[in-house]
Structure formats: structure tokens, C-alpha cells
Design a protein that fits this description.
Layout lengths: L9 H12 L12 H10 L2 H11 L12 H16 L12 E4 L1 H4 L10 E8 L4 E11 L5 E2 L2 E2 L3 H23 L6 E8 L7 H8 L8 E7 L15 E5 L6 H15 L2 E3 L18 H4 L5 E5 L18 H20 L12
Parallel strand pairs: 3-6, 3-7, 7-10, 8-9
Antiparallel strand pairs: 1-2, 2-6, 4-5, 8-10
Bound molecules: zinc ion.
């Protein structure tokens, strides 16, 4: 890639400069009909997020460790919500579970994990239904340690309930004749805390060809604020949006400016950042396969991976606004005329 720059002729250079200096054209990042999307952004409800998170991050779910009875209860609760909302499992699947054998989960580090499952749900697209937009969040957490339940309300109960709420907003749109043009695949990943196993398994055993998978919007921890934002929760870290597709970056910017108005923080949008957040959640297994991926994140805090990551500490106004943001990104990717162009190499 780099060498091609050396071959640019003076004429090409002048032409490029002229294009670059021309006023920015809206068409490149055209945002679909405002009227429609606002109805569905509005449908994302703080009350629903709170009700669902109160269940998902309750002691009854026993910290949702991979393959544990508590995690299976959380899965059953999610499936019940999809059924209630009239949202099906994907075409080509037999139910809401993508089953992952213990042998696979223990390949990397033998932790003696039992069998576990990704949970998936699907909103079939209309005229571009073979193109898939993935929305992901992990629903596992670290279980019970020394008798204490690690509820993982922020990590990643927040993402778990966010993607359920996003799915419901897409389904509502579909019920009202405004279903997405591309198909939406929701995946609640398992085994994330043990090494991104669920997303790695999905990428190796995809239900829909990866070449038809347009993007992944991954949500992991969006219900709190970090110590760099003590005076406001009106922000979100955006990571990876420009690694493979400059259009994905533009969409993440333009839908925010148009509908959401969060402060987008790119501090961690750097593969050389010592925290290595890009490598630490499920979008990574899409990005590494050449699928444009964006990770929405609130940063870490004092309760990160502690028993004190509780629902009582969730800031539901922030969780709601960031869920709306993820939805708006997915809506634009799913409904725009052209499929996202991959114009960069993820190096
Ligand atoms: Zn997490």
C-alpha cells in the first residue's frame, strides 16, 4: 500500500489536491431519512434498559461465568425477551443458540470450561438481506469468587441490554414497514472474559459468509464513566472505526452530529496505546478478518472486574444515549445504498 504513493504523478497529485480542497460533499456520508430514524431512536427506552439490566446483573445470574448455570439463566432471559418482541433466531439456525463445545473453549488455555453458547437473534433485511450487519456484546462475566458474586453490570451487562434494546427498535421499524435493507444479526457472545472465545468461534463458524458481513458494531461497557470524565458522562470512546473503512469513521461521526450529540473520544483509537483496548473485546475477531468494526466503550473505572460493578452504579442516562448512538450507526450502515467500502488495510 505505501509504495503506491511514490508512483503518484504530479498531475494526479494536483487532481487529488483539487478534490481534497473541494467543499465536503454530503453524498459520501449521506444519512438516511431523518423522520424514520428519529422514531426508532426514541423507542430505545431507559426504563427497559434498567429493567433488563436489573435482571441480567442480579445475584441470581451468579456472575454469568462461561458455561455456568447462571450464564444459562441469563441466556434464557434474553431469549424470552426476543420471543416477546417477536424477534426470531436467524434464518439457517435451528434456535437462538450457537453451541460451542468445551473442547473449543479450552483450546487456548485449559480452564476446564464447560460447553457454552452464543445467543443470536435476527432481523431479516429487505432488498439487501444477504448483506449482514452484526451487532455484538458479550453476556458472560467472571462468575463467583470467594463467595462474592461479580455481577458485571457495566461489564458487559450494559452492552447486553443495549443490543437487545437496539434489536427491538429495528423490529419495531420492521413492524411499521421500515425494516432495515440489510439484515441485522445480533450476537450475545460467550467466553469473552476468558479470551474472546465466542467471537472467535463465530468468525471461524459463521452462520452467514464473512464476505457478506458488512460490519460489526461491538458494545462492551457503556453504562459508566471513567476517571478522565469525572465531570460528565456525555461521551463515548470510539475505537477502530477508521482502521478498515473511512466510510465507517464518517458514519460514526455524521450520525452523532445529526442525531445524538455525544462527545466522541478517540483517545484509545490507537493500536499502540498501552491499554490495547482494540485487542480486548469481540470486535477484534471481525476486524482481523477484514470486516470493518467499531467498538463503543466508556473506559475502565474503580469497579472494573470487581464485585462492586453493580447496577446501582450504572448511569442510565448515559447508557441510554450510547445505546441510541450504536443504533443510529447500525441503522445507517444497514439502510444506505452502498455497502461500506473497505479502503484500508488493518495493519
Ligand atoms: Zn467486557
Amino acid at each position: 500500500m505505501k509504495t503506491t504513493f511514490l508512483k503518484i504523478t504530479t498531475l494526479q497529485l494536483v487532481a487529488t489536491l483539487l478534490i481534497c480542497c473541494a467543499p465536503a460533499k454530503q453524498s459520501a456520508t449521506r444519512v438516511t431519512t431523518a423522520v424514520d430514524i428519529n422514531n426508532y431512536i426514541k423507542a430505545i427506552s431507559k426504563e427497559n434498559l434498567e429493567t433488563n439490566l436489573t435482571v441480567i446483573a442480579s445475584d441470581e445470574m451468579e456472575g454469568r461465568d462461561t458455561g455456568s448455570p447462571g450464564q444459562k439463566k441469563a441466556a434464557a432471559y434474553l431469549i424470552e425477551q426476543y420471543k416477546k418482541a417477536g424477534i426470531s433466531y436467524p434464518t439457517g439456525a435451528t434456535d437462538y443458540y450457537q453451541r460451542i463445545p468445551a473442547a473449543y473453549l479450552n483450546t487456548k488455555h485449559n480452564e476446564n470450561l464447560p460447553d457454552s453458547e452464543n445467543i443470536w437473534a435476527f432481523i431479516e433485511g429487505t432488498d439487501k438481506k444477504d448483506e449482514i450487519v452484526v451487532i455484538s456484546a458479550h453476556y458472560d462475566h467472571v462468575g463467583i469468587k470467594k463467595g462474592e458474586v461479580y455481577n458485571g453490570a457495566d461489564d458487559d451487562g450494559s452492552g447486553t441490554v443495549a443490543i437487545l434494546e437496539m434489536a427491538k427498535a429495528f423490529q419495531k421499524a420492521k413492524n411499521e414497514g421500515h425494516g432495515p435493507r440489510r439484515s441485522i444479526l445480533i450476537v450475545h457472545m460467550t467466553g469473552e472474559e476468558h479470551g474472546l472465545h465466542g467471537s472467535r468461534y463465530y468468525a471461524e463458524n459463521p452462520l452467514f459468509p464473512l464476505k457478506n458481513t458488512v460490519a460489526d458494531i461491538n458494545i462492551d461497557m457503556i453504562g459508566r464513566r471513567d476517571e478522565l470524565h469525572t465531570d460528565t458522562n456525555d461521551y463515548v470512546y470510539v475505537i477502530g472505526s477508521d482502521y478498515l473503512s473511512s466510510e465507517l469513521y464518517s458514519i460514526c461521526e455524521s450520525v452523532n452530529q445529526k442525531y445524538i450529540h455525544l462527545t466522541l473520544d478517540y483517545k484509545y483509537n490507537d493500536k499502540n496505546d498501552p491499554n490495547r483496548f482494540y485487542y480486548r473485546s469481540d470486535h477484534y475477531n471481525f476486524g482481523k478478518n477484514g470486516i470493518p468494526a467499531v467498538f463503543l466503550f466508556n473506559g475502565t473505572h474503580a469497579d472494573y472486574h470487581k464485585a462492586t460493578d453493580e447496577v446501582s452504579k450504572i448511569e442510565f442516562d448515559a447508557l441510554t444515549k450510547r445505546t441510541k448512538y450504536g443504533f443510529a450507526i447500525a441503522w445507517e450502515i444497514a439502510n444506505r445504498e452502498n455497502r461500506l467500502v473497505v479502503d484500508k488495510t488493518d495493519k
